[in-house]
Amino acid sequence: MTGILFDMALCAALILTGWRVLHSSDHFQAVVLFITFGLILALAWVRLEAPDIAIAEAAVGASLAGVMLLDALRVMRSAGKEHEQERRWTNVARLPSFHLFFSFIAAVVVLVLLICAVLELSGRQGGLADLVHAELESSGTKHPVTAVLLNFRGYDTWIELGVLLLAVLGILTIRECSDLRSLAPPVASTIVFETLVRGIMPLVLLVSGYLLWRGGFAPGGAFQAGVVLGAGCILLWMAGHRSLAMLGDATWRILLILGFLAFLALGSSSLLHTGVFLAYDRQYASLQIFLLESAATLSIGTTLAGLVLALQPLKKDLSQANRDVR
Amino acid sequence: MTIWDIFSILFCLAGGVFFLAGVVGMLRFPDAMSRLHALTKADNLGLGFIVFGLCLRSLAVPVIIKLLLIWLTVMLASSTACYLVGNYILQKAEDRPKEN
Predict the structure, then answer these.
(1) Is the Cβ–Cβ distance between A250 and A242 less than 8 Å?
(2) pTM of the predicted model, to two decimals?
(3) Is B84 an 8 Å CB contact of chain A?
(4) Among residues A240, A267, A282, B25, which one has the fewest Cβ atoms lying within 10 Å of its Cβ?
(5) CB spacing of B84 vs A199 below 8 angstroms
(6) DSSP letters of A210-224?
(7) Average pLDDT for runs of 10 along chain A of length 326
(8) Three-state SS letters, A65-118
(9) Cβ of A192 and B77 within 8 Å?
(10) End-to-end Cα, chain B, rounded Å
(11) ipTM of the predicted structure?
């Protein structure tokens, strides 16, 4: 009885916050409400007994997206930038018409492919849970979610890593830089926050490693571990440490691409050996999954932190601003 | 119902009262500083009472250690966040007369 009451309160809170996010007049208020919405949603996932998704939702949907939105607000509010953004957008609108035409054709092709894919799905009663549990023995891991993500549907996870990589590449292209070394040094923080981050960083590494290891038999895994790692990198930056911007060109690129590359390497080697892409050797499946997850953790952490850090002011922006002031 | 359960319920209720007071304070207090005060009280004492109540309920050492760790971590984070917000308010208050 209390469970149902709690769930109903949770649903009401979700709908109410969602409505407030869309209808609040103040941008800042909307962002804060969006973060609240993410946290309530995470609670809802816990109630649905999906702690994996709850961790991901709290970490990405609420925290990282919240930080990115707050950063976007800061950029929008700093006066000079507003015009620059406006100019950029009108540039996009003034693309040559054949560019727009090809974009339209590409969008239609993707839409048709997606519709075909949906039509081809076979409606299976009760989902695939029984099948997953039946095949769990041979998957090389003891946790069904990890088995699906890394074994049965490893292809999807691989493409997801590719999407994350593309997102970082997109932001870096717009910022016109290839790595984070061209970022202006972070603003020094107060000693209190610095001390907290100093104390919390070892814990961040410990929790990240624990989540990665735990993914083999219980809720956890590469994505959650990577998010914690990424959040640690962002905390370092906020405390005034150069964080990911310290990495040399080669290290930065390798870290970004490591997860994607590990999947690609394993997939192609299994393609050559067995003729099936991303088929694991039963004997070494758990080792292979662990290696893939470790590589993916590093890449996801770097990518997510990179997404936020790449939005920070660049050296050339600051020198430009100084010149404008003079 | 054992004596432990009764104490546990009492402590959890006390925690709930502190959270309620914190929420009311945040909504009704006039300025940011006093709102911060209300919020941190809810975080520290409210969560503290609830953690204590839950400890009495489980009475298993590993669970108690985990609960206390959660409380400590939240206190660390909330007090730092409170300091940062307070510091920001003070700095803004210092900057304002110069602008005018």
Answers:
(1) no
(2) 0.80
(3) yes
(4) A282
(5) no
(6) HHHHHTTTSS--HHH
(7) 88 93 86 93 91 87 88 75 52 67 91 90 70 77 80 85 92 84 83 89 93 84 89 90 85 91 89 81 81 92 90 78 66
(8) HHHHHHHHHHHHHCHHHHHHHHHHHHHHHCCCHHHHHHHHHHHHHHHHHHHHHH
(9) no
(10) 66
(11) 0.80
